Amino acid sequence: MATPQPKLGRPTRWALALGALGVAGVLATARWLEPDPRGYGTHVRLGLPPCSFLAVTGTRCPSCGMTTAFACAVRGRLGAAWRANPAGTLLAPTCALLVPWLLAAAIAGRPWGFRTLDLPLTVLVVATVALCLLAWTVRLLLGGR
Questions:
Q1: CA-to-CA distance for 31 and 54, rounded, in angstroms?
Q2: Is residue 39 helix, strand or coil?
Q3: Which of 66, 95, 98, 142 is 20 to 30 A from 105 via CA?
Q4: CA neighbours within 13 Å on the CB side: how many for 16?
């Protein structure tokens, strides 16, 4: 007989709900922003400074183009999103799927499809970092800026 899955505590459930709102806010902001035609730099429209790594090295950093990729992806411009940042192109729809998953886990008190939150959240963080670094490595090997 399987052991029943323990319910998540109230603070964890609130954190999941706030996380869902935060991720939805990122997607809404991406929809609101007009993507920079260069394929990077859209974030400066939020009052953030330009990429220091790019300014110093002349090479885009692993997250360069991420905001632009999100802004393109939420508009369905997947080719432009991919050129801006392949990782961002894959992360944008992942975020769209993450919002209902987080809300469902917050409401039900259990992470849908998993016994605990450890595995899905660890995989999400590791995959995001690996994806960003892989896309950056390929960009560097292809000589792209």
A1: 25
A2: coil
A3: 66
A4: 25
CB atoms within 10 A of CB 53: 14
Tens digit of each residue's pLDDT (9 = 90 or more) over 57-106: 888 899 999 999 999 999 999 999 999 999 999 999 999 999 999 999 99
Under DSSP, is residue 68 helix (H, G, I), strand (E, B) or coil? helix
Q: Is the CB of residue 70 less than 8 Å from the CB of residue 92? A: yes
What are the domain boundaries of the chain?
10-141
Q: Which residue, 82, 77, 71, is CA-closest to 43?
A: 71
Q: What residues contact residue 109 under an 8 Å CB cut-off, 6+ apart? A: 7, 8, 13
Chain centroid offset of residue 101 CA:
15
Q: Where are the alpha helices (DSSP H) in the chain?
A: 10-32, 52-57, 66-73, 78-84, 86-108, 118-141
Q: Which helix (H) or strand (E) holds 75?
A: none
